[in-house]
Amino acid sequence: MRPSLQEARSLQQTLAGHASAIESTLDRLIAPVAGGEARLIEAMRYATLGGGKRLRGFLVVESAALFGATGAGALRAAASVEMLHAYSLVHDDLPCMDDDDLRRGQPSTHRRFDEATATLAGDALQTLAFEVIAAPATHPDPAIRIALVQALASASGAAGMVGGQMIDMEGEGRSLALPEVERLHALKTGRLIRYGAEAGAILGGASAAEHERLAAYGRDIGAAFQVADDVLDATASEAELGKTAGKDQEAGKSTFVSLLGIDGARDAARRLADAAVSHLEPFGERAAILRDLARHVVDRRS
User: Gene3D superfamilies per the record (predicted)?
Assistant: First the structure.
């Protein structure tokens, strides 16, 4: 079921408000500098600022708000995961990976600068992401900060995003079964989205049961997001996507669309969104925006 016009407007306003606050936080945390490293910082800012859905950061802020954990700490954690995501996109676009010249409607970082600078910018964004969440300004309790670091490391490493990228590269030019595609994207895309929801639970001191429900919500919304992304890759224009359209088909990758068809993939995305919503039931109306977000990710056009 699609959200009503009023619900959609409320969600869009909330998305825009959080994106603006996260953008401002990123701008402060990756401030321009003078000296020999100025070009590196410029590339980091180019890769991170001025675009993107801020979905992962949004999830941090909204899930933390369920437990009253608002303010600068939640925004720092949100900015951190957006840095990590930006690093992954910079490296993903490199010629040795997906070799894409367009990202968020502008030249990819390695095209705007050069491959070496882009690689270093990605490296620096990854380390800065952990520096930010490890700092007392994110949370005064070191146990909370350690939990954030551990969860982000798990979500982004060999058992998460990076492992999924390896599976994705090895899958080019050969047919993968649906369970293989599901696992690929659960790691490459889903783990970092799931972390966004879990980070809010960590910041807010959620109970084990509440943490598990938010993790399940993040897992299912991440899967829905990726299925919808595959549909967009097959149906949307380059202008709508802000990146090269049809790249997966051109690379011979198995996708949800190639396995299920466009209509089947759309149905799968809606089922996953409904499953994500079901995990939020104990939170009542406090989770209204998160419910609307689950439906939004399958109806978006970019």
Answer: Farnesyl Diphosphate Synthase
